[in-house]
Design brief:
This protein is α/β, with parallel strands linked by helices. It is built from 15 helices and 22 strands. A hairpin with a 4-residue loop joins strand 21 and strand 22. The structure holds flavin-adenine dinucleotide. Its cofactor is FAD.
């Protein structure tokens, strides 16, 4: 039985959230062990945000080139996937090799261990035949994996998840996509713009069902214009693969394609973490955390595993809170161990805490920030982009809020009209009439994700509507449409 090794902090899972926590704590001088079983950096750089946005950049270039006809002459477009695959392989992922990321972490002073970490009692984590005992605690940043629905036959077929869709070198002729959420729509539009015949099957009655119904309509219309077939309200019942093609039986119809992509959500795998040894229920879907990311005493969680929103910016936001909380704890430990403040133990927690006190870096007693998701922004990077923040109209009504709604189509704004082809989109505002502030907003359009930023500030800082109405909006920007939507705010 291995003798446990004492360290300050153990971080299990070095995705975006875990790597940020482990790297920043190590940089601050704590002894940190970071455990990762796959690639340091996690889903976002290798199979998520970054490569998918490279694909979208390429697909949007094709779409813009096709818009030359009628706007600026004629253009003939010949899509070629090879440069996209090359860019993902060489620029984004180093052919799915994390050497650079590992060096980035160890260069910040962290100790890296490759393997699967699991609890072996309070404060103790086993990875292979090593056991670490954490003085301050353990941070879980173990993320999620694709959740594959229990559809008859599916498990026995060579279906794709986002991993195969991102790694693809040669595009199929046709693709069935199970799931019309953000990831399903982004990838569907990319492949369609490169000439793949794409069919989306969504069980709910609309795509992008977590967002405003108007956003679902705009996104569905855009994808249909790119040739994507969309079927909503159809639940896949059976999947077969005959060696060449997939057949999905759904809602009394059969759909066939060369490839099948399953993007029906994601799930944390808590059962692998030995949580029973620290008294935590591992049967839940996600790990519930408080507003300082505590799962339990001396256990924190960050990122997708918390279920607070599967976004890189949430993982980073939560990571900043965990870092401040742990550094605060280290500072207190130093103060307790050395009330005179003269100790200068180099290395380990004491040395780290001395450095923290000297540098006055983020977090101090009572000032560790608390998580607040009221103004959580989210962007679906379809073309048009759908940016959203805070509550949808329906969510606000369900909470009994005295709701006002303001809506305007982008095409009726000066910039939308100038833009012409490709100007589909809108601004929708959801206000709390009693408080006189915005509590949610959606900006769909060619730059919907960028236009969103002003709306995020408005929701986050609860800027009074009267102030928003009296701001100066640059002419002729897309974001100037916000002014029109504000003018249209009313109770309906
Ligand atoms: C196709 C796609 C596109 C996306 N696009 C965007 C986007 O545009 N914007 C955005 O904000 N978000 C996007 N996301 C979501 C984003 O990728 C995630 O929110 C983010 O990666 C979450 O980071 P994380 O640190 O929580 O988890 P992950 O990135 O999932 O990392 C968790 C890590 O923990 C490791 N691990 C798990 N268990 C163990 C264990 N027991 N021991 C050791 N290691 C373990 C895993 O191997 C993994 O590397 C996208 C996701 C996908 C799939």
């Amino acid at each position: 039985m291995a003798e446990p090794e004492q360290v300050d902090v153990v971080v299990v899972g070095l995705g975006v959230g875990g790597e940020e926590v482990a790297g920043r704590l190590a940089e601050a001088g704590l002894s940190v062990v970071g455990i990762e079983r796959d690639l340091v950096g996690g889903e976002c750089p290798y199979w998520g945000c970054i490569p998918s946005k490279m694909m979208i950049r390429a697909a949007n270039a094709l779409a813009e080139a096709r818009r030359v006809n009628g706007l600026a002459g004629t253009a003939q477009v010949q899509p070629d996937w090879a440069p996209v695959a090359k860019r993902i392989r060489e620029e984004a992922t180093d052919t799915w090799d994390d050497r650079v990321a590992v060096e980035r972490f160890t260069g910040r002073g962290g100790r890296f261990v490759r393997g699967s970490g699991r609890f072996e009692g309070p404060g103790r984590v086993r990875v292979g035949d090593q056991v670490f005992e954490a003085r301050y605690g353990v941070v879980l940043g173990t993320g999620t994996r694709p959740s594959v629905p229990p559809i008859e036959g599916l498990a026995d077929t060579p279906y794709w998840t986002n991993h195969q869709a991102i790694e693809v070198e040669e595009l199929p002729d046709s693709l069935l996509v199970l799931g019309g959420g953000a990831i399903g729509l982004e990838l569907s539009q990319v492949f369609a713009r490169f000439g793949v015949r794409v069919t989306v099957l969504e069980a709910l009655d609309r795509v992008l069902a977590v967002e405003e119904p108007e956003a679902s309509e705009v996104a569905a219309a855009a994808l249909r214009a790119d040739g994507v077939e969309i079927h909503t309200g159809v639940r896949a019942e059976r999947v077969d693969h005959d060696g060449r093609a997939f057949t999905v039986r759904a809602g009394g119809s059969e759909f066939t394609a060369e490839r099948l992509l399953v993007v029906t959500g994601r799930r944390a795998h808590l059962d692998e973490l030995g949580l029973d040894t620290v008294g935590i229920d591992a049967t839940r879907r996600f790990l519930p955390v408080d507003d300082r990311m505590h799962v339990a005493d001396d256990i924190w969680a960050v990122g997708d595993v918390t279920g607070e929103g599967a976004f890189t910016h949430i993982a980073m936001y939560q990571a900043a809170i965990v870092i401040a909380d742990i550094l605060d704890r280290a500072r207190h430990a130093r103060a307790g161990a050395d009330p005179s403040g003269t100790a200068s133990v180099v290395g380990g927690a004491m040395g780290a805490a001395s450095r923290l006190g000297a540098s006055g870096s983020s977090g101090s007693a009572g000032t560790v920030p608390r998580a607040d998701y009221r103004a959580l922004p989210r962007v679906t990077f379809t073309d048009p982009e759908v940016g959203a923040v805070g509550l949808t109209e329906q969510q606000a009504r369900d909470r009994g809020i005295n709701v006002q709604v303001g809506f305007t189509k982008l095409g009726s704004s000066t910039r939308g009209w100038i833009h012409g082809v490709g100007d589909e989109g809108f601004i929708k505002l959801v206000a709390d009439a009693d408080q006189g502030v915005l509590i949610g907003a959606t900006s769909a359009g060619p730059a919907g994700g960028e236009v969103l930023s002003g709306l995020v500030v408005a929701v986050h800082a609860a800027v009074p509507l009267s102030q928003l109405r009296h701001m100066i909006y640059a002419y002729p920007t897309f974001h100037r449409a916000i002014e029109d939507a504000l003018r249209n705010l009313r109770s309906i």
